[in-house]
């Protein structure tokens, strides 16, 4: 049958795509890549038991002061090429950062897949560290940033919370926590390639710190590419 438009498949991102990973594969995520640095770890469901969800992904700093772990994608997304790009993760923080064992969490879009690279060169996402009680919304371009306090405190109470970074072309970036819009940034949006990423990076101390994700979702729409022809 003739095709004039198609959703994406696992090989090409066409005009629209929507990937969800519920981490039902124990050793490899479906569309993101595990990245670890300085003895940090990023591994699947092993050792995580929390029914009734079907799968989890644990991202851990390890005990090294500068250890880190991440899940990230291909560095090939430019906001001007899409009407909308969204990256979401449902995860819980095991232990909050403090002045002794300090770390940062970032989830959104970053210019590097490296788990130890700070999101302050080219990025758009939600950021937490021990210097801020609340989640901060970040947009950075050419190392110049806009930071907005979301007013939502980070918690380590065993609950899973959903964090969403939604990029509306080159107009703005919206930040949602548990479905509620908590900030909108209109300045310093990245102008060149970024990738979806969730990371935890240790900055002080020798006690390991972790986040555990129940799922991630990466969606895009409004790209000019279409699939033409017939199959």
Write the layout of secondary structure elements.
Layout: E1 2-3, E2 16-21, E3 33-37, E4 41-43, E5 57-60, E6 68-72, E7 84-93, E8 102-110, E9 123-129, E10 134-141, E11 144-153, E12 161-168, E13 172-177, E14 180-185, E15 195-204, E16 210-221, E17 229-230
Main attributes?
231 residues, mainly beta, Jelly Rolls, eight-stranded antiparallel sheet, 17 strands, 0% helix
Account of the 3D structure:
The strands form three sheets. Strands 2, 4, 5, 7, 12, 13, 14 and 16 form an eight-stranded antiparallel beta sheet that branches. It is built from no helices and 17 strands. 40% of the residues are buried. The chain has strands at residues 2-3, 16-21, 33-37, 41-43, 57-60, 68-72, 84-93, 102-110, 123-129, 134-141, 144-153, 161-168, 172-177, 180-185, 195-204, 210-221, 229-230. Strand 9 and strand 10 form a beta hairpin. The model is unreliable at 1-11 (pLDDT under 50). It has a single domain, classed as Jelly Rolls. By secondary structure, it is an all-beta fold. Helices cover 0% and strands 49% of the residues.
Low-confidence stretches: 1-11
Structural class: mainly beta
What distance separates the N and C termini?
A: 6 Å
Helix content: under 10%
Number of helices: 0
Radius of gyration: 17 Å
**What is the number of independent domains?**
1
Q: On the 0-100 scale, what is the average pLDDT? A: 89
Q: Using DSSP, what is the number of strands? A: 17
Shape, per Cα inertia axes: globular
Q: State the CATH class.
A: Mainly Beta
Which CATH-level-2 architecture?
Sandwich
The major beta sheet can be summarized as:
8 strands, antiparallel
């Amino acid at each position: 049958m003739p095709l004039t438009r198609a959703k994406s498949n696992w090989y090409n991102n066409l005009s629209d795509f929507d990937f969800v990973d519920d981490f039902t594969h124990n050793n490899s995520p479906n569309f993101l890549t595990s990245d670890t640095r300085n003895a940090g770890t990023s591994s699947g469901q092993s050792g995580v038991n929390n029914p009734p969800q079907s799968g989890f992904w644990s991202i851990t700093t390890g005990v090294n002061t500068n250890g880190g772990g991440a899940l990230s994608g291909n560095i090939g997304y430019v906001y001007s090429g899409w009407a909308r790009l969204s990256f979401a993760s449902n995860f819980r923080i095991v232990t909050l950062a403090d002045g002794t064992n300090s770390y940062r969490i970032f989830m959104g879009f970053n210019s590097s897949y490296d788990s130890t690279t700070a999101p302050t060169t080219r990025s758009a996402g939600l950021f937490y560290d021990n210097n801020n009680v609340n989640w901060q919304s970040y947009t950075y371009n050419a190392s110049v940033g806009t930071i907005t306090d979301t007013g939502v405190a980070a918690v380590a109470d065993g609950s899973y919370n959903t964090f969403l970074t939604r990029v509306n072309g080159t107009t703005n970036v919206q930040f949602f926590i548990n479905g509620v819009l908590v900030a909108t940034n209109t300045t310093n949006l990245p102008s060149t390639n970024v990738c979806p990423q969730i990371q935890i990076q240790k900055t002080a101390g020798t006690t390991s710190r972790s986040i555990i994700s129940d799922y991630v979702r990466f969606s895009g729409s409004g790209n000019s590419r279409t699939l033409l022809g017939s199959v």
